[in-house]
Amino acid sequence: MKPLEERIKELPPDLAQEVEDFVEFLLEKRRRKPRGKLKLDWAGALADLRDQYTSVELQHQALEWWADDVSRGH
């Protein structure tokens, strides 16, 4: 089997670019720092809404709030 570099050189330019992009992705994935422990500093932040929503309604409302933020680019 030919060395990887030689095989990449045989690819058309668009596929060679895909290989390069994939290698960059793998390198970036390896460089990422491991995530720390989950913080729960938000726990209880919605307690004041307890009388307005059931837990399921609150989940749906939170998703709507999140979607609004995402659509505004936040």
Share of residues in helices: 55-70%
Q: Would you tell me the structural class of the helices and strands?
A: mainly alpha
How many β-strand stretches? 0
Number of helical segments with 4 or more residues:
3
Strand content: under 5%
Number of domains: 2
* Overall radius of gyration: 23 Å
The arrangement of helices and strands along the chain is: HHH
Largest sheet: none
Euclidean distance between termini CA atoms: 49 Å
Low-confidence stretches: none
**Mean pLDDT level:** 87
Shape: elongated
Q: In short, what is this structure?
A:
The chain is mainly α and 74 residues long. It has helices at 4-9, 13-31, 55-71.
Question: Could you walk me through the main structural features you see in this protein, from its secondary elements to its overall organization?
Answer:
This protein has helices at 4-9, 13-31, 55-71. The radius of gyration is 23 Å and the shape is elongated. It is built from three helices and no strands.
SSE order and pairing:
Elements: H1 4-9, H2 13-31, H3 55-71
Question: What structural keywords apply?
Answer:
single chain; 57% helix; 74 residues; mainly alpha
